[in-house]
Structure formats: structure tokens, C-alpha cells
Request: fold
Amino acid sequence: MCCPSGTEIPDRDHRRRRNPDSAQDGATEFDDGTSRPSAANANGHGPLFGAGSRFQEFVNDPRWALAIVRATVLEAAHPQVGAALIDNSTFVAHPWRRLRNTLRSLQRMFGDDEQVRLREAARLNRLHARLGGTDPRGRPYSAMDPAIRAWVVATLFESTVTMCRLGGQPLEQHGMERLYAEFQAYLAAMGDEAGHLPPTLSEFWPYYDHVVAQELENTEAMRIILYKLFDHLPAPALLGGVPTLWATGRAVAGPLIGAITVASLPEPFRRRAGLPEMPGAQTLMQGAYLAVGLARFLPDGWVRADAVADLLALSPDSDDPRARAVTALHDRMRRAGALIRLITPLPPQPEPASRTGAERGAEEFFREVLDQTGDGYLDWPDLAAMARELSTRLDLEEPEETRLYDAYADWWRELQRALDTDGDGRVSAREYATAVPSLAGPALIKVAEVLFDATDKDGDQHIDADEYRTLFQTAFHRDTVGTDRTYTRGAFVRDFLAFMSGRRRSTAYDPLLAQA
Amino acid sequence: MIAGHTAGDAFADPTSASRFADADRSLGVPRHVACVMDGNGRWAAQRSLPRTSGHRAAETTVIDVIEAARAAGVEWLSLYAFSTENWSRPSAEVDYLMRLVRTVVRKHAPLLHARGIRCRFLGVSDPRIPRELARDVADLMTLTGDNRGMTLTVAFDHGGRRDIVAAARSLIRAGVAAEAVDERSFAAHLPFPDTPDVDLVIRTSGEQRISNFMLWQVAYAEWVFPTVLWPDFRAPHFLECLHTYRQRDRRFGGVLPERNGDSRS
Reply:
């Protein structure tokens, strides 16, 4: 466990840090004054980060995607996190991109390399510092609030534990303590003072139960995730070209993820938020318990056929105490059967193809590119999300990141002046479509130039193949930009403007900004 | 009335809509709201699209209205999806509607259940209904039968007169003496006899007809006729209809207004 106890004032100077050179033997040394997480727990049982940590065992487990979804629902149910998600997050319109960014960030934070971790923590802190505001009821929120960040980490930890438990392989106490220490170290690596997460695992559970019972609400963000996102989950990039296949897959996966997630939420919260029992998931669990439970009483490899026949012959209205349970189970099975039949996919039906032509309709462009948060309005958080995505891709540091945000902020003011005709401070899809605007004002050109400078890492006024790949994550295969196989400033700005204002489809920008 | 709506209202902020509902809950939300989903064909015609695309666009409205009604505290929501007279439409359109309803039922079943909504289908007796659809409908009713949230009644292959005739037959078969028949005992033989009287009927697209819809249950209903077409109808429109309802002075033929949803008998 980490050393600061609840009674001590957390003193950054006394926390241990990992010396990258001594990672092999897990040795630690005292810090020189800057905040660093400890690399090994107090018992010296291996590193908290990187190879050998408990986290690394889970990160490649496919069940972990479900755990993250569950954690996100629990985060969103926190009123302040929910407000931050509603205002700023792109998870409705671009859920896959967000999931990928989250996973990559976690891998960096939990990886072997201390330098990578420090840079990622600094990046997250800059990102969080830009997320703040007030919720619809006027309560302020800030993504830098250490209590909120502690809750986010708590949901990740608890969801990982629950994933193991529901999967039938519950973590033993020691493993759970190790994992908790790793998540505490994660929070510490972001520079948050200790104390917002309880110091020990035994104190964690009362804290968790308290937040679930007292602070979580049926927030707008949670409802959107449960009811809207799973219904309308956009196709991931890989399946973008086969909408029929995706539609079929989503018809099963969306509701199923929803059902499993709802079923796995803590009971007190489900009750308060009005989320009912899911008979399919419950019966599945019950069936498993029943099988395991019965097997305990059976001699090895010997099935007591007479006992089974006895149970099956039991009349539902007999006064045998088992009859009620059998009737109830039968009822559940009936409903589970109905659910399973309903979610079994139908044979694919042809859907009219809409992805034709190089140019988008105004409404389509608004939905796919401009409205990054998917709330039907163009507002600063949408442009901030674009700036965030670009600076994540390019791994920008200060001051480049601020330059990019500033350019986007100027562009936002330009758009607002030109398009916000009703003066409500944001641009509706309707205002955008009515104006059929020419977006290529000087501020947008400035955005293109700042983006060019940020992409052109070596500053030679050309974007070479490597720099191009960093931004677009695709090979540089244009043969129109010149014989030297590089991208000039003029061509870059021209293409960017063609994408943003001419609404041209683009093999480069579409995956970057339009893809889910 | 909510006449004079512009299509722009469809873009209204959904979060403000739900807050609006919360604040007004105490002022008398109608217990049972019914919607006659009219205007899909005209919606498509205005866009030079086939009628079927109007029906497809209606799906979004249905889901939006269900969520808006639930959030507003409506306990019973009935939707008129397909009347016994609709069988006379071109067979291609009927076939399309059957497929569409099946797709919608399957797509939304788990989340309707997750929302605690009890789903029922009123009608669904014609042999022309595809067997697969009837199966899915039965499954949805089985799945959600024990839910205690809002009850959603989808009138599909429904006719108000047919239900009344069916109740009369049922009474005769039960051998009830003529003197023993009153409104209450008659209503007990209607399909889904636990359904309370409709308090508010919303018929979109400006049409002002009853069209053989839940004739027994709408006896004392308030009606509103928003001009917006059903595919453009959204949660804010729905809440505005609830607001209109609250402005009405319900007398039930008497002088003193009663609380909505009260049983008359």
C-alpha cells in the first residue's frame, strides 16, 4: 500500500519515485522534491506500473472494454462528471475514437516508461484544465477537481474488480489490494494529492458505497449513454464501408451491451435511477450459480438422474418449498427466451447507400464534422474537441497546444459572428444549413497555418511522410503535391480549407475528424 | 393549441425540455396520453420521397415521445400505429409497415425493457399479420409484462368499434343478465380492461378526426391538434401539448373540474 495514511498531511517530498535505471529489481529511492508515484508498493511486491503489474493482466482482456463502458456509466451518473461529459465530450458522436484515446492514455499511464507517463500526465492535466463550467442547474464543475478525478479512478478500479467477479474469477484479497495500489499510483502520477481516494482498500468500499448511494444521480449524460448511444452506436471505422453488416451487428451488440451494463450496475443505484432487473442477465448468472451449486453435492462424474427427475416433475402449485423457486425460475426463463429471440439478428436487409459523391450535404457535414459533441449544436466545446483531437494526434506540448486552441477560439468567434443569427451563443444545425456559409474566413486560414506549423515538427516548411503519418495515421500517397513527396504549406492549407469549407470528403481528414 | 409551430422547434434543446417536465409535475400531468400519429405520408410528399420514408422517419419520433412521456410522469401512453382500415392501403406500403414495425420492435425491445416500460399491443388479431411479427410482439409483451414503469399501448390493427363489439360478445358468452350490464361491467370485457380512460389525445398534422381510435376510452378525453407532421414531432412539442392540456378546464359534463385520471364510475 502507499505510505500516506489518513492522519498524515500528504507530503509530496516523501513519496517515493521509481528510478528508471533500477526498475529491474524494483528498488526505490526517495524523491528529489517533484511529485512521483511510487513504482513498487510498500511490501515490495513488484512494480505498480508496467510489465508485472496487475493492470497489465487486464488491459488486453476483451472483457475490459465492457468494464470501461460500465465505468463510464458510473462516471456519467456523477452530477459533476455528467455535466462535463454533456458539455464537452465527443462520446456520442465519436465513441470509438474516444475509447481508443482512453485506452491509449491508460496504456501510457500504466506503461513501463516513466518519461511517457510524465508527459501523458501533463497532457491530461492540460486537457482537464480546459474542461470546466456549470451544469444545467448552475452548479460549477471542473475536471481538475481532485475529488472528481478520484471518483473516475474509483469507477475504473471497481469496474475491473466487478468484471473479474462477474466473470467467475474474483480477485483474491491480495490481488485486489495490489490493483488498488496501482490505481492510487495512477492518480498520484497525475499530480493529485493523496487523500481523495481512501488510503486502504478496506476504507475504499465504504467510500464507494457512499458515493453510489448518496451522490450519483440519474443524470442526462447517463441517460444518453444508456438509451441513445447504444441505440445509435455509429459504425467503427473498420466497418464504415459495410453499413448493412454493422447495422446487423449493432442490432445485437448495442442492446446487449446496454443490458449487460445495466445488469452489472450496483443495486442501490439501479433502484434509485429506476433501472429494472434484466431477466436475461440475471438468469444467466442464476443458471451458473445453480450449476455450480448443484455440482458441489454430486459425487465426481455421477449425475443423480432421480433427483433431477424429481425436480422436473414438481408441480408448480404443490406446497413443496422448491415449487415457488421453480415457478419463478420458469417465469424468468420465459422472459429470457423472449429477450433472446428479440435480439437475435434478422437476415440483413438492403439499405439505400447514402455515402456517394465527394461533397456532403450541409446537414451531413454539420453532423459528421462540426458537431463533435453530438448535441445538435455547434458550440465552443465542439471546436475545442477538434483542437483536443488534433493535439492528441500530434502529441503537442506547450506552447504549440495553446496556439492551436487559440486559433480555434478565434475561428469560433468568427463563426459565431457569421452564423449565430438568433444570438443564443451557439449555432444550430438549422442556422448553419440556412446560411449555407462560406467558412473560409481569415480565422479558419489561421487554424490551417497553425496546424501546419504544429505538424511540421522540424520546421522545414514541408510536411514529410513521417509528419504526415503522425497527423493522419495513414501513409502519404499523394502524387500531386510535388516531386519531392512532401506536402507544402500552400497545398496543406488548400486541402484543409477544401475539407472544412467546401465540405469535400477527404481520405485524410475524414478519418481524423468525421469518423466515429 | 400548438398551431403555428415551425420546424425549427424540432431542434430545441432536449435538456431544457426535461427540466420543464420536472418543474410541472405537480400541476397535473395527464395520466393517459394517446397519440394519433398522422402526417407521415405528407411529410414524405413534401420532400418528394416515397411514403415509406415518412414511416421510417416516424421511428425517431416514437422513441422521442416515449422517453418524453416517461420523463414527464405520464403513466399510460397509447400510440395509434395501424387501424383496421389501413389494410386497404397499397399492399407494398402495408408490407413495408409490417417489416418496419418488426424491425422497430426488435431494435428497441431491450431498452424499452431497461426503461421499465410495460409494452402492450392492442389489436394484432388479423391473420394477415405476418407470423414472425406476431411472435415478436408476443415476446415483447412477455418480456416487459412485469414492468411497473409507464405502460405503452401500441394500437396495431386496431378498431375502436371492433373492441366494443368484442366486449359485447364476451358479455353474452359470459351469460351476464341485461340488467347487470352497466358501464363498469361492460368496460371489464374490453381488451386490456385495466386501461384507464384517455385524458389527452394528440393528433398531429392538423387533421381533426377520431378515426375509430379507442372509442370507449376517449369518451372524456381532451384533444389537441398540433399542425406539425408526426415525423417532425419531438419532445418539446409533446411537452407543449401537456401544457395546453393543463390550461383546459375539464368538466366531464358537470360543473366541477375533477382530477385527471379519476375513474368516472
